[in-house]
Design goal:
Length: about 70
């Protein structure tokens, strides 16, 4: 799907330089960056859910260990 991305001039220059050094398009760099961000945020949500589950599931055990 097409979209327009407006960047500050300095960031656009940095993106241009990065794309040139990697021998890829700016679109490729932006696409990879967005994919990495989506993956990282997804992992963060999974870790938060796992931590919440562990804290709730093992709450009594954690309280006993705290008192030990």
């Amino acid at each position: 799907m097409a979209m327009t991305l407006r960047l500050p001039a300095e960031l656009d220059e940095q993106l241009e330089a990065l794309a040139a050094s990697e021998h890829v398009s700016k679109q490729t760099i932006v696409t990879e960056a967005v994919a990495a961000l989506v993956a990282r945020k997804g992992r963060r949500r999974e870790l938060d859910a796992a931590l919440t589950w562990a804290l709730e599931h093992d709450a009594e055990l954690l309280r006993r260990l705290e008192d030990a």
